[in-house]
Amino acid sequence: MAVPDRLDVTLRLVRNAGRVSLADLAARLGVSEMTVRRDLDALQGRGLVERVRGGAVAVAEPESAAGFTARAGWQAGLKDRIGRAAAALVEPGATVLLDAGTTTVAVARALADRAAAGEGPFTVAAVSLPVAGALADRPGVRLLVAGGEVRPGEGSLAGPLTAAVLRQLTVDLFVMSIGAADARAGWSEFTLEDAAVKQVGLEQARSSLVVADASKLGVRAFASVAPLSAVGRLVTDAGARDPHLTPAAQDTLAALDDADVEVVLA
Question: Which SUPFAM superfamilies would you find in this protein's record (predicted)?
Answer without folding.
Answer: NagB/RpiA/CoA transferase-like (SSF100950), Winged helix' DNA-binding domain (SSF46785)
